Sequence to fold (374 residues):
Amino acid sequence: MDFSFTDEQELLLDNARRFVAERYGFAARKHILASADGYSAAVWKELADLGFLALNVPEADGGLGAGPVETMLVSMVVGEGLLVEPFLSSAVLATRTLATLGSAEQRARWLPKLAGGELIATLVLEAGYGRDGHDAIRAAGDAGGWELSGRVPVVYHAGIADLLLVAASTGATPGEPDAVFAVPAGAPGLHLASCTTVDGQVAADVELRGVRVEKSARVGGDARLGLAAVVDYGLFALCAEAIGALDRTLATTVEYTKTRNQFGGPIARFQALQHRMVDMLMRIEQARSLVYLAASRCDDADGEERERALSAAKVLVADAARFVGQQAVQLHGGMGVSDEVAISHYFKRLLAAEIRFGSSDAHLGRYERRLSAG
Fold:
C-alpha cells in the first residue's frame, strides 16, 4: 500500500504547519487559553480562509470535498500546534453529520457557513464506545414537532457553538440514538454548564429540559448507520491529531535532552535514555501505521471492516499516548509537569486523546466482536 502523499497534499501540510509556526506559538496559545472565550475567533477565521474548515464539505455544497487523507494531515497539525479551536468538533464531526444526513435545504443553509467560519456547530452525543445508552437524549414526537429531554456531559465546544446537533433516541431503538436534531444556541429549555477539559479546551455539560423543535429540525431520517460512520470518522481525526502531538512530544524531548547537562555533559549521551527515546519512537511509528490504515478504511461502506481498523488504531494510539507522554515528563524531570513548559500541555492533550471516544478496553471489545463476526 502506498502511503506517500500527493503534491497537493504536501502543499496542504506545509501550509498548515506554516500557519501554526507563524500564528500559534506557545506564547500565543497561552494568551488564547487565558481569554474569556477559550478560543480565538481570529484564528478560526484564518483557518476558514485557508480552506481547512471546508475540507469535509462536499463540492456540491460549496466546499472542497477532500478525503480522509487531507483531514488526517490537518488534524495532525492541529495536534502539533495544540490548537484549542473547534476543528474536530465543528469542521469534522458537525460538518460530516450535516453532509451525511442533512437534506438539500439543511446542507445549503448550514454547510457554507461552517466552511466559511461564520458558524460553529458541535455534535451532542455521548461518544463512549460500548456504552449502555442510559444517557441518551430522548425525543418525543407530536403533531407540532419534537420535544427533547436528557443530558450529555462534557461536550467539547458546546458553550461556544451556534448550533447543536443533538443525537437522540425516538424510541424505535430504546437507549440508542437514531435521530439528529438541530438545536440553536439559546433555545428555551437548553442549559449549558461550562467547564474546561484536562487539555484546556472549552466544553459544557448539555441538558435539554423539554426543548421544543419543529419537525424540520430533524436532520435526515433514521440516523443510526450515519451516526456510527460520522463518529468513527471523528475517532479517526482524533487519532491523527494525537499522532501530531506525539511527534512534537518526542521532538521536544529529544531537543531538551541535548541541552540538559548532568555529570559533565548533555543527558542525550546516556545510552539508557537513548534507548528510552527509541522506544518512544517505535510506539509512535506503530500507531502511525494504524492511523494511515484507518485513513483508507474510515470511509469504507463495510461497517465491520471500518470499525476493526478504527478500533485497532485507537488502541495503539492510546498505548503510545500513555507511554510517550509519561516518558517525556520523566525525561524533563520536575519541570515536565509545569505549565510554563510545552511538554506538560502535550502530556495533557495526549491524556485527553487516550480517554476520548472510548477506552482501550471498549475498543478491544469492539475489535473482537467485529473480528468474530467477520
Remarks:
- The chain has three domains: 7-120, 123-217, 224-373.
